[in-house]
Amino acid sequence: MARKLPHPSTLCRKSHSHRPHLLLFLLPSAITSLLLLLFHHHHHHLPSLLRPLWDSPPLPFSRIPHFYAENTSLSLLCRLHGWSARSSPRRIFDAILFSNELDLLEIRYRSLLPFVHRFLLVESNSTFTGITKPLFFLHNTHRFDFAKDKILYARFTPFTNPNSPRPPFRMESILRSAVNSLLRQSGVVDGDIIIMADADEIPSPQTLQLLQWCDGIPPVLHLELRHYMYSFEFPVDFSSWRATANLYRPGILYRHSRRSNVILADAGWHCSFCFRRIEDFVFKMEAYSHADRVRHRSFLDHERIQRIICEGGDLFDMLPEEYSFTELIRKMGPIPRSASAVHLPPYLIENANRFGFLLPGGCLRTPE
Fold it and tell me: Where are the bilayer-spanning segments (predicted)?
């Protein structure tokens, strides 16, 4: 007797019923294969790619909203921040560690000159990675004659042993501690404000006015800076927080790290790798604490660097370092361009003919 064959639709249903089990079986294998492929070809990406699995974000800051409008009285602005107005302004001391950011330093000093009592600047003849470097500021002091009466400068020569170089972050710590000797010479007294920052972390004039004229500000106030890369054409986010405003008290030391849980929103600008010449990009890539990110000599190729500057790409071919997969995916790829040159350092806009490479449309770096 002939066997009765099942209806084709029954076979189809049985086949479909096994697919979820097949997928569950194949999925771990596929993920493992993908990770092995990534590790083989892009193993340097894995720590950033998997960071949300092994790392936790730092505690969030308590953000103080920042109020400002042109022609608004400082007494009103102080009240809007929950502070009270002073009868006379505080003195502000601007303390930085300088490497080779000459253009940004000029923009910084020109923009902040009316509000700063004394500029403190430490420069070393050695990079964080132990490379001998020129004293860029000392050789270009003529550019800063407009502020020479306010500048307190120190040249620092760290002891280096070529046979036993210090780790870059240790060298950075030593150089930053050298700023403290300038603080002791500066004449700072209780109640003065000390800005502790890098040269490319520029507080806005509006921020300094608040610090000058308001009582009730926190003793250590982090400054939330809008972060840019290569120029003000490529805004990244508001992730820059290391710059601080500090009410001076005896024993205070210069630091460039987390000091408190309070941060003032939209307090200025941080422009990373914002250089005029390609040679300056190469210098910083080899000089700063993360120089180990230069995994191949080809990373220092001038044509490659120029292309990446105009694309808003990553000089080190790295993934974003984020604590969540959502942020990591959102920031993958080039930085979106901005056509806005509004709310930037005033001296930059007033001298756009000199600093066009920092403005929208000026990504090409031409030889001087």
Answer: 21-39
The strand pair at 262-272 and 193-198 is best described as: unpaired
Instruction: Write out the DSSP string of 25-82.
Output: HHHHHHHHHHHHHHHHHHGGGHHHHTHHHH--PPPPPEEEP----TT--HHHHHHHTT
Instruction: Specify whether the backbone of 187 is left (phi greater than 0), alpha (psi in -120 to 50) or beta.
Output: left
Helices (H), 186-264: 205-213
Asked if 346 and 337 touch (Cβ cutoff 8 Å), the reply is no
Contacts of 189 (CB under 8 A, 6+ apart): 248
In order of 228, 246, 335, the CA distances from 235 in angstroms are 4, 27, 7
Pick the closest to residue 69 from 205, 203, 202, 206 (CA basis).
206
What distance, in Å, lies between the first and last C-alpha atoms of the chain? 96
CA nearest 300: which of 275, 312, 283?
283
Query: Greater confidence, 306 or 329?
Result: 306
pLDDT confidence of residue 41? 43
* Pairing outcome for strands 92-98 and 118-124: parallel
Q: What is the predicted pLDDT for the residue at 347?
A: 97
CA neighbours closer than 13 Å in the CB half-sphere of residue 181: 12
Look at the alpha carbons of 139, 143, 149, 153 in this order and tell me if their dihedral is positive or negative.
Answer: negative
**What pLDDT, on a 0 to 100 scale, did the predictor assign at position 345?**
96
**Taking a C-beta distance cutoff of 8 angstroms, is the pair 125, 162 a contact?**
no
Distance (Å, rounded) from C-alpha 215 to C-alpha 280? Answer: 41
Inform me whether the pLDDT recorded for 328 exceeds 80: no
- Enter the tokens of residue 56: 């936790």
Beta-carbon-side half-sphere exposure of residue 308 (alpha carbons within 13 Å): 22
Q: What is the pTM of this model?
A: 0.83
Q: Rounded mean pLDDT of 187-215?
A: 97
Q: What is the CA radius of gyration of the chain?
A: 26
